[in-house]
Amino acid sequence: MAITVVGSVAYDSIETPAGRRERCLGGAATYFSLAASFFTKVRVIAVVGEDFGRRQEAVFQARGIDTRGIEHTAGKSFFWEGSYLDNLNEAKTHNTELNVFAAFEPKIPEAYRDSEFLFLANIDPVLQRRVREQMPDVKLVAGDTMNYWIKDHRAALLEVLKGLDVLLINETETKMLAGNNNLVQAARAVLALGPKALVVKHGEYGATLFHKSAPEGKGAEPFRAPALPLEEVIDPTGAGDSFAGGFFGYLASSAAAGELTPAAFRRAMFYGSVMGSFACERFGTERLQQLTRKEIDDRFILFRELTHLD
Amino acid sequence: MAITVVGSVAYDSIETPAGRRERCLGGAATYFSLAASFFTKVRVIAVVGEDFGRRQEAVFQARGIDTRGIEHTAGKSFFWEGSYLDNLNEAKTHNTELNVFAAFEPKIPEAYRDSEFLFLANIDPVLQRRVREQMPDVKLVAGDTMNYWIKDHRAALLEVLKGLDVLLINETETKMLAGNNNLVQAARAVLALGPKALVVKHGEYGATLFHKSAPEGKGAEPFRAPALPLEEVIDPTGAGDSFAGGFFGYLASSAAAGELTPAAFRRAMFYGSVMGSFACERFGTERLQQLTRKEIDDRFILFRELTHLD
Fold first, then answer.
1. Does residue B306 belong to the interface with chain A, where contact is any CB pair within 8 Å?
2. Which residue of A198, A307, A310 to mutate against B (max B Cβ within 10 Å)?
3. Is some CB atom of chain A closer than 8 A to the CB atom of B229?
4. Do the Cβ atoms of B270 and A309 come within 8 Å?
């Protein structure tokens, strides 16, 4: 089933212990789309400036991603500059320029309207909600957010959470959103805000899926997917968005096969971790651009061996 | 097969967000023994002072643990005081009194000599080595250590590592010992120091088993056991030692069945995590004292559900 994703398509300048890259193609919607494109049809809604040209567009098109919803406008694209010199698990932001994103009014192309899945990548919750309202008939809606929106735009974010099937955020954000430092208690508090399921990303330790308890208390056990211990992390930028793309892309492909089951959610967690691990292996989206489905499936098997008793 | 363990039997004063306990029974060898006793016969070598009486001895005896190697001497038992008020993952030490441990000369009772398994809990590596040398014929030797010995007693520690089959340490200690901040690279460096296998404990994120590569490169894939996301951590003291007890105790029981296989090592990782999770549920050794084998096996099944795709 097709996924429409709204979020940033951007340029990133990144410094890690492995080196530095200037203005490489980035943005949450970019990583998400590339990762999800290995599993299902993906359609992007975003805004870019005059600095986004054919070469960048070609990255999406090479993966069959529909870019008709990427609006081109006067000005410069969203720009982020950050480093991971002290800690590969946490970016230090040096500069954020919203640029064309400051006045973004998401418009949904007619050709996107039959998308069954909707992903609201990390952007202003006001925009997330606007997109959600324009696509009332989707089958499954998932979303991401970040500390900035949790702290300073809580009311708008809470409105978004009410309409989500799955929220994917990291552990720090989960605890901040819940105001609770215990993961299990925080997850329960976040689920009470609306989402039916919560994926908490733990960076190099993987991710945990929490479900809202069914009335009979069944099917509510958490599920933990590992991350692959990596010999070398070149650049963790976009790992979380790539996780979301693998997770949601796999779910969309499962749904197409009529299998949106608890087992499909567990496999989706593994595919999320798989895509996140690939994203870290090169700078920016380089690794995702060169990936094959066979590499993905081989790594899925590796993840199974990493965690399964037999 | 029987395990002989050498390490501290001590008193701990502990403060956590859940409360405070004064001078409860603790020490690495205590937690290890209690946890391992659910799987196999355990024999302790330690030293205690006049403050260690029948009531403390009874805790070991209730679990069938052989205490003939616990030497009683004039003075006070080892004492540790610490808190976890800011961070449940890391103890803040307020006071350490070696007391009778300062002049400890481990002696191995004749009745312990046929032990097939030896565990060197976290004590001075000079003592660890002395015990190891007195038991040259054991089948499997595992050990633990801590940042203090890694930093200030490196030469003595390196001698111990040469004789170990399995080293169990936490992630920070692994990176410190290797002088390398990448987990995979650090694990390889530590394995080059002697141990055939390395268990890296990640606290609330579980633990990873690394094997020395076989010449043909097979069987060297890491294995990750989860930790159970706990609703409430009452007291993390001894969780790592309880992990070691579950891990090594299960291995000893597998060896008795002639099954010291890679699959047995993976199950041992799960039993380690299971015992570590129980240890956190009450203060000190309270939970381990009240545990049943059925609770352990039920939680093993829960850990499988937490991580397995089907």
1. yes
2. A307
3. yes
4. yes
The verdict on a CB contact (< 8 Å) between A230 and B308 is no
Neighbours of A36 (CB within 10 A): 31
CA–CA gap between residue B24 and residue B38 (Å, rounded): 21
CB-CB neighbors (< 8 A) of A306 in chain B: 221-224
Cα angle: B173, vertex B179, B185; to 5 degrees: 90
Nearest-CA distance from A228 to chain B in Å?
9
At B200-255, the pLDDT tens digits run: 999 999 999 999 876 555 556 899 999 999 888 999 999 999 999 999 999 999 98
A-chain CB neighbours of B231 within 8 Å are 182, 184-185
Q: Nearest C-alpha of chain A: how many angstroms from B214?
A: 17
pLDDT higher than threshold 80 for residue A215: no
Interval B254-308: pLDDT, tens = 988 888 899 999 999 999 999 999 999 999 999 999 999 999 999 999 999 999 9
B249/A16 Cα distance (integer angstroms)? 42
Task: Match 């069938």 to its residue by tokens.
Answer: B64
Predicted-complex ipTM score: 0.91
Residue A213: its pLDDT value, please?
72
What residues of A are in contact with residue B206 (Cβ under 8 Å)? 205
Average pLDDT (B4-26) is 97
A242-294: pLDDT as tens digits: 999 999 999 999 988 788 899 999 999 999 999 999 999 999 999 999 999 99
Within an 8 Å CB–CB cutoff, is residue A270 touching chain B? yes
Taking contacts as CB-CB distances below 8 angstroms, the residues of chain A near B204 are 183
Chain-chain contact of B309 with A305 (C-beta, under 8 angstroms): no
Q: Tell if the CB–CB gap between A205 and B202 is shorter than 8 Å.
A: yes
Measured CA to CA, the distance from residue B71 to residue B69 in angstroms comes to: 6
CA distance B163 to B143: 10
Among chain A residues, the shortest Cα distance to B268 is held by: A309
Cβ neighbour number for residue B267 with a 10 Å cutoff? 20
The DSSP-derived string for chain B is: --EEEE---EEEEEEETTEEEEEEEE-HHHHHHHHHTTTS-EEEEEEE-TT--HHHHHHHHTTT-EEEEEEE-SS--EEEEEE-SS-TTSPEEEEEE-GGGGG------GGGTT-SEEEE-SS-HHHHHHHHHH-TT-SEEEE---HHHHHH-HHHHHHHHHT-SEEEEEHHHHHHHHT-SSHHHHHHHHHTTS-SEEEEE-GGG-EEEEEPPPTT-TT---EEE-----S--S--TTHHHHHHHHHHHHHHHHHHTT--SHHHHHHHHHHHHHHHHHHTTSSTTHHHHH--HHHHHHHHHHHHHHH---
The owner of tokens 């030497």 is B71
Quick one: pLDDT at residue A35?
Answer: 98
Question: What does the alpha-carbon distance between residue B140 and residue A295 come to, in Å, rounded to a whole number?
Answer: 38
pTM comes to: 0.94
- Are A224 and B307 within 8 A, CB to CB? yes
A226 touches chain B (CB under 8 A): yes
